[in-house]
Amino acid sequence: MKMRMSAIRGLALIGVASMLTNHAGAIIVGGAVTSGAGSFVQLTTPLGNPFGPANSVGNDTFQNPNLYGFNESQNAVVAAGGLTLNVVPAAAPGGGTGGGTITAGTIVASHYIFFDPQANSQEGWVQFDSMILGVLTLTDSLAASDYLANTGVNYLNPDLRGLEPGQDSAWVLTAQPNRVYVNWSASTPGDYIRVLTAFSPGAVPDVGSTLLLLGLSLAGLSVARRKLS
Fold it and tell me: Which of 32, 115, 116, 188 has its CA 20 to 30 A from that of 138?
């Protein structure tokens, strides 16, 4: 019995250790500009923005026609109350923009996608290594999800983020659940969205999520011990 408990405990600790030591690359895996100037650029933090405060995004900190993306919290737990989505992949055949929610306790990986030109329009896409659960395109939704931005980046002009209905759009095709498409026009301060994907096999877990999973592992050990005794 003691040997069996030792084996169970060892497997649980190995699982947690594996999460803590998984230092694979970012989970944005590609992107492209399909119409308009510029190209896709994947950023890493700290950001090397050419204008404004160091390590910042928003409020004209890039001022060029590129399509940018960077990873925020990876495999983090959605807090109490959940999150309201503005774009849901399965909302309509071929993708849609209907509302939806992600419930509390769901593990997600977060990504910031933006367009910060002086004045320009653009169409393009960004690809991820796991399925998109939803996209946040409105000011309030972005603000409510900012706790997923554990990057050290300074997020400027929070009251002016999001897309303008009728002018800008983001969508996900049913046949391409790992890819978000954008079609937007911007000047000051730019267009900004947050994409939430499912658990990423190629990302380092968020510390809070790791502690939660560690707690669940220990709780499982306690249950197993009671059943074996």
Answer: 32
Q: Shortest CA distance to 191 belongs to which of 117, 133, 123? A: 117
What are the tens digits of pLDDT across the range 179-221? 999 999 999 999 999 999 997 666 655 444 444 444 444 444 4
Query: Structural domain of residue 36, as residue ranges?
Result: 23-204
For residue 124, being part of any structural domain is answered with yes
- What CA–CA distance (Å, rounded) separates 145 from 19? 24
**For the chain, how many structural domains are there in total?**
1
Show the tokens assigned to 81: 């109350």
Rounded-to-integer distance, Cα 97 and Cα 88, Å: 6
pLDDT tens, residue by residue, 47-81: 999 999 999 999 999 999 999 999 999 889 999 99
- Tell me how far apart the alpha carbons of residues 206 and 199 are, in angstroms, rounded to a whole number: 11
End-to-end Cα spacing for the chain: 8
CA dist., res. 147 & res. 158, Å (int): 13
Does a structural domain hold residue 60?
A: yes
Produce one character per residue of 18-33: b if its CB has 16 or more CB atoms within 10 Å, e if not: eeeeeeeebbbeebeb
Residues 6+ apart with CB under 8 A from 6: none
